Amino acid sequence: MAMRLMLLVGAIGATILGLTGCGYVSAGPTATEDRTISGDPSAVLLEGSGTLMVQPGDPALTITAGENTLERISSTTSSEELRLAVDGGFLNSPGPIDYALTVAQLDAVTIDGSGEVTASSVPAESLTVRIEGSGDVLITDVDADQVSVVIEGSGAVRLRGHAEEVQVHIDGAGEFHGEDLIARTGVASIDGAGDITIHASQTLEASISGAGSIRHSGGADVTEEIDGAGEVRPS
């Protein structure tokens, strides 16, 4: 009986070791790869982790990551949106991933996960920023008619530049830093404990359901609606 038990334990251990050794791999040594981009994307979706830098120029993408991670990174374009993600495989951890992207125009940025996006001086007719998770977005030199920001989770968005209208909605504990985004009109709403700083010179509609905070500058006429312990005040 004891012999059978020892053989059984040994077989289970060998199976686990085999699955672990064959199924999971490390990110591997760091390498850089240039990717061909199909079409002329004006939107980008970053899934999971990674750092993305976007600059104006002809469409081009360079990725720096571990060799095993590079093999699993998908960079596909659909309906003018470039999707960047680590697909499939059994990586212990994808490790650091750096994306360098140039596009002629950037109208939308979406993060699904914990990634970071930084962009500067990229033209946009209208700009939409969306975070689902804990990602971070910084965009400078914004020049757009309309800016729309949605944060679901604990992500943070910081925008600098000019816009005619800015709309911000936070569902959760996210943060929007828009004191340096000079706009004429604004709409700001929070469901939860988020924090919004916004600049509007003419009108601002502010609403909070929960314990969030909306701080405003620019001298706009403010209408506010609060349900809970939130506050709307000048910054």
Automatic annotation (TrEMBL):
Under Pfam families, the record lists: DUF2807
Give the source's domain of life in one word: Bacteria
Q: Which InterPro entries does this chain map to? A: DUF2807 (IPR021255)
Where is region (Disordered) located? 211-235
Question: Which residue numbers delimit the Putative auto-transporter adhesin head GIN domain?
Answer: 47-219
Query: Per its record, how is this protein called by name?
Result: DUF2807 domain-containing protein
Q: Which organism is it from?
A: Candidatus Ruania gallistercoris
